[in-house]
Write a structure and sequence with these properties.
Blueprint: E1 3-4, E2 9-13, E3 16-20, E4 25-27, E5 30-32, E6 39-42, E7 47-53, E8 57-64, E9 67-75, E10 80-85, E11 89-100, E12 103-110, E13 115-119, E14 126-131, E15 136-142, H1 148-156, E16 161-170, E17 174-183, E18 187-191, E19 200-205, E20 212-217, E21 219-225, H2 240-255, H3 264-283, H4 287-306, E22 317-320, E23 325-328, H5 341-358, H6 360-365, H7 367-378, E24 392-393, E25 398-399, E26 412-413, H8 416-433, H9 436-458, E27 474-476, E28 479-481, H10 490-495, H11 512-523, H12 534-541, H13 546-555, H14 567-576
Antiparallel strand pairs: 1-2, 2-3, 3-6, 4-5, 5-28, 6-11, 7-8, 8-9, 9-10, 10-15, 11-12, 11-14, 12-13, 13-15, 16-17, 17-21, 18-20, 19-20, 22-23, 24-25, 26-27, 27-28
Length: 577
Amino acid sequence: MPVFTGILAFQPHDDGASLSLPVVTAADRSVFGTFTPDLPITLNTDSFALTQVDALSARFTFRSGDDDVAHLRAATGWPYLQFEAETDVELELGAPAEALDGQADAVRVAGPLADYLVVGEGVEPGTSITLRAGEVVHVAGLPEAASAGDIGQLVDGAVRLEGTDTSYGTDASSSWTTYTLVGEGETLFGARDHQDFGSPTGVVYETSSGPVVLHAGREFTTSTDAVEVTDRLDLSGLTDDQREELAAMVEADAAASVFDGGDTYNFGKQVYRGSTLYRLALDLGLDEVAESLAAEIDAALGEWSENECEEGAVRCFAYDEVLGSVMGLAPAYGTEMANDHHFHYGYFLHALGVMGMEDPGFAERHANLGALLAAEIAAPASSERFPQRRSFDDWAGHSWASGVAPFADGNNQESTSEAVAAWAGLALWADSVGDVEAAEQARWMLSFEVRTAYDYWLDPVWMPEGLDVPMFAMVWDGKRDYATWFSDDPGAMIGIQVIPAPPTMTYLLDDAELASHLVEVAYADRPVEEVTLGDWVLMLEAAYDRDGALETALALPEERIDPALSRSYLVAFILAG
């Protein structure tokens, strides 16, 4: 499968790699930046392996027998692929290189779809490049309208890259990310719509996620608004009658709660729902209801915490040595291939956080379970068993949901809201056990996940000319779709960006105009009970018509309420927004 850097795409082979500067097109309900092999580079090798990964970059090593011959390094946001010779080696180009006026150490190669710049000391026109041991050569795609000045900047920025690092921080008002490219001098680095590094050049690439503007430097910092994490809805504005009616709903919903799910998604939604009812019960003075829910949730999570996956067990976690990933034994939505782990485990973590914030004993009893799931989806640093921030892409500013990403268009994410819930849940769990590092990282990821959810899914900054869609429901490395995995109902497109609407997500009600637009698209002149995920879409209606949303929520048939949701929480969210 191809590897996407956000600018280039490439497919490693045993004897080299095929490169592509994806051409952006739009059709029907999608914008494409698909990988199409365009420039093959061939080596005299017979195998390759991924040998190094850091914050933004990966290195592939090509071998002949047991001997390392050359390395290919790529980094997200970096416009180059770097080939480094371990021994003397010939790189055979799939098309002849031509001289460039005024550039002694750079040549231009025309592929069928795009032109490429090859930069290296002593490179010459022809169909091959000779590298001596330790030498490097860089390959970059050329934007269609690249000027002589653009080419000069790309030549100057082609410096040896030795690695990358990401640092971050967050406070009450903002979250920020600093990317460091470790190398031999200043280079170029791409900024998407949600980023601004403050040193733009004139070099711009078109991608399926919008324009990528290259900036010059070694360190690149961007920031966004911080998002406040909370475990509870603000019920202070409710009247006495509303509190009394809501309390009766909580009692009924708590009595109907079940915690019998066998896979991580269904159980996760159940325990998340239970924890939201527990918090509502406490806030409404229903202490006995809260105590009963706490006991049920404690026991149910205890099975997952204490079960060592003996023969016949289902509700437990095991470490898959092949994929290097923590799995629930019962597969659900491809979890056995590491799919959707931050979605599923986010439900667990949110419940652990809500309960643990109130009861330190609960937090202590389930601390090992929380630590295991937190390490699986967002370990702050790499270890023998877990990669750093497995689910989160530091440069893209959002998560990816497909574990091994066996797709020609790369990785993808559908539900931004389940990702947001995961990082809010991780922050709450970390707070409950006093893990300061995990709590700060979670809040940083949350802030950028929210920002990118708006910029690329809900309210896209960039939309290709001629594409008439209201938003995107799925973002891939190589395309964006107005589509979901499970339904073509417009309600599904919108609702999957709301579920499970934890208290942290009341920001969805801050933009009445956008909420109204999304609800209109989702409802499509139908009653809410006919809309896929209509219960989640209904929450958005509270941004501009709280009374109407409340009336609809009270009358919504029980079978139209999702297992992660209760009527109590639906009504409380509408009243608190």
